[in-house]
Amino acid sequence: MASVLLVDDEEKLRQLLKRIISLEGFTVFEAGNVKTASRLLEKETIDILLCDVKLPDGNGVDFTATVKEKYPSVEIILLTAYGNIADGVQAMKKGALDYIIKGDDNDKIIPLLNRAVEKIDLHNRIDRLQKQVGLQLGFENILGNAPLIQDAIGLAKKVAPTDTTVMLLGETGTGKEVFAQAIHQASKRAMNAFVALNCSAFNRELLESELFGHVAGAFTNAIKDKRGLIEEANEGTLFLDEIGEMHVDLQAKLLRVLETQEFIRVGDTRPTKVNVRIITATNRDLDEDTANGKFRQDLFYRLNVFTIRLPALRDRKKDIPLLAKFFMERFTQKANQRVTDMNKEFMDHLLQHDWKGNIRELKNIMERAVILANGPTLTIDQLPLDLQVANHKIKGTMSAFDLASMEKLHIQRVLNHARGNKTETAKLLNIGLTTLYRKMEEYGIVWNQA
């Protein structure tokens, strides 16, 4: 149960309140003045402070401000004499939960203490959730020991506490949004919204409405006012992915947001003030786009204040085993499978792949492999056919072994397509069911799901 520190110089009243509160299961500490109460707050874990306004060595209202500054999680309830309600109101402005008039019905104390406990529990739950979110979206969620990714993480950690505009450069699938979220979580804006928008997903008109919002009547079907994502991200962070795809006309409006921290909704005439940090990302060469007039030079300079280049997965292949294991464990839980390992041949194929889709491609391949797994160990049979074939091409020239391997891969692919149904597989391959079983035995193809 919660602990209560009762501060009052009237001993009889203090003892009465202590008895009432203790009977409800609260742990009660008591003090007759501010000095003793301060020592107890330093020594004991106090959840609720029940304090008189008039004390021999101080004032409860001033003490409220001091306690809230040092112990913000402590809930404070003031005891005030009749006629001094103003003191209680003033204390609430300084952080007190509520106040009780001395001599009033003591039955009001316990409900008020219970209300304080509920508020404390709510704050604790929120803190736990925020810590969980921080772990999931923070820098701890970015895996990799290769120097290139560690350099990128180091830069991101340095810029995160500031309000500086950040531009993330890298190929598709390198984790640009993950980095943007981590920067947000490590900033002073972490308690506020992180809003992400892919600029390539909308045409010019829709993107303008999504980004800046609109007022009723601004265009056909605009039947009511709509807040844009810039406004939704107020006091937080706005992440604009694929910024190079934004129309030049909208680039001018975005530049105004960066320069003045205000914008005008579509169809409106009055500017709206915001306080938003902007992080952008692109896989395009904006220097070239700027030279060709496809991207505004002034906006490029405003966005390119702090640049972080994210490496392609093929440039940090030493991280593939770590990432593959991470995804394997995640999808094993999600798919309710019992996959615990990857054999050497499976890992060799991953290491030899070019990974044009980078981490996103690896993630998708690992999810597929776990779903197709027939046992505790992942094998090349669970890899996409093109990845298996590419690896054979790398190994050397065509031979009888290669031809047999191609046949094995094709049978495996059709089995996967038919979800392990042998009859359907034989029909699709245009061979007899007996022939299919013979070839499966010859090539060591096992499928236990059908």
Describe the structure.
By secondary structure, the chain is of the alpha/beta class. It has three domains: 3-128, Response regulator (Rossmann fold, 3-Layer(aba) Sandwich); 139-311, Rossmann fold, CATH 3.40.50.300; 314-443, Helicase, Ruva Protein, domain 3, CATH 1.10.8.60. It is 49% helix and 15% strand. It contains 19 helices and 18 strands. It has helices at residues 11-22, 34-43, 60-70, 85-93, 109-137, 147-159, 176-185, 204-212, 229-232, 248-260, 286-291, 297-303, 320-334, 344-352, 358-372, 385-395, 400-417, 422-429, 433-443, and strands at residues 3-7, 27-31, 48-52, 54-55, 58-59, 75-80, 98-101, 166-169, 194-198, 213-214, 226-227, 237-241, 262-264, 271-273, 277-282, 306-309, 341-342, 377-378. The strands form six sheets. A five-stranded parallel β-sheet has the order 2-1-3-6-7, sandwiched between helices. A five-stranded parallel β-sheet has the order 9-12-15-8-16. Helix 3 (60-70) runs parallel beside helix 4, helix 13 packs across helix 15 (358-372) and helix 17 packs across helix 18 (422-429). It is extended and about 95 Å long. The two termini are 56 Å apart.
Work out the radius of gyration: 32 Å
In this structure, how is the largest beta sheet organized? 5 strands, parallel
Secondary structure class reads: alpha/beta
The fold-level CATH name of the largest domain is Rossmann fold
Strand percentage:
5-15%
Tell me the distance between the termini.
Answer: 56 Å
Overall pLDDT metric: 87
Comma- or semicolon-separated keywords:
extended; five-stranded parallel beta sheet; Rossmann fold; 450 residues; 19 helices; Helicase, Ruva Protein, domain 3; alpha/beta
